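Writing this down once: the sequence line spells out the residues, with the fold written below as integer tokens. I am pasting one below:
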Amino acid sequence: MKHIVVEITAALEALSDAEKKAVFPKFFRAGKGEYGEGDRFLGVVVPQVRAVAKQHRNLTLDELHELLQSEWHEVRLCALTILKEQFKKADDMLRKQVFDFYLAHTQRINNWDLVDCSCYAVVGEYLLDKPRDILYRLAESPLLWDNRIAIVSTFAFIRKNQLDDVYALSDQLMHHPHDLIHKAVGWMLREAGKRNPQRLYNYVMSRRVEMPRTMLRYAIEKFSREERAILMAVTERNLHFME
């Protein structure tokens, strides 16, 4: 199975762009002490990764496991792209296998783009008609990427107008220490607000003081200028009073 890693890595290396290879480690925070510390990049953009994935769409889960062990970010992205496409076309039995495989490899789904491009299409879609306790366990995990998977997977629910889990998980992650989760929660709240603006407005109003600033700004981005001004003014006034 190692040959498939060599083959796909070589295909991606052939598409490498020197400028992007230099920029990506900074963009994805791969420096010492940063959330992507140690990640390595070939400098290949997403459409090119997708093209390589399309040529290897029938890989086995064992082969995808080997790809996910790669030190190269784009090789792992390629594996997740293949996995996502396989899930779309799978029967119920294979979908369960892909879902279990995905959750068994979250330590290798270890940057925000890897999470965001795949979790809603695998974890979220699988759970559409099932109990969702696993998301709340992921939200409690010590692994940052599990936490992000938990909230971003709700994007699949939002598309079906199923909003309860978005708000429940937002409450659970409200005081998370990392800005990456604040952004993800704010993003999902914003998407939920597109489906039901009043519910989002009421939610933000009731939590505006405790909500991290980044989360709040992401969540209210689609409100009118007047609504944003009211929420931010109320928030800033309350924070000043508490100091």
In short: The chain has two domains: 1-111, 131-242. Residues 68 and 76 are 5 Å apart (CA to CA). Residues 1-111 form one domain.
